[in-house]
Amino acid sequence: MMVVVNEKQVEVDEQTTVAALLDSLGFPDRGIAVAVDSTVLPRSHWTTRLSDGARLEVVTAVQGG
């Protein structure tokens, strides 16, 4: 099935969770926020399975001034 991550289409298995997708795409373990279909998803819900057509926005915190 297909999902969209930061405006890029990604093919995933039906059993793929948010956490597994982030790991497979190389996102860091800390310092990121995830929204699925425009709703912020708490880290405690990253075990949620993705659905076909889901749209994810992943934002990485950047330190600096």
UniProtKB/TrEMBL annotation:
InterPro entries membership: Beta-grasp_dom_sf (IPR012675), Mopterin_synth/thiamin_S_b (IPR016155), Thi_S (IPR010035), ThiS/MoaD-like (IPR003749)
Higher taxonomy: Bacteria, Bacillati, Actinomycetota, Actinomycetes, Mycobacteriales
Protein name listed in UniProt: Thiamine biosynthesis protein ThiS
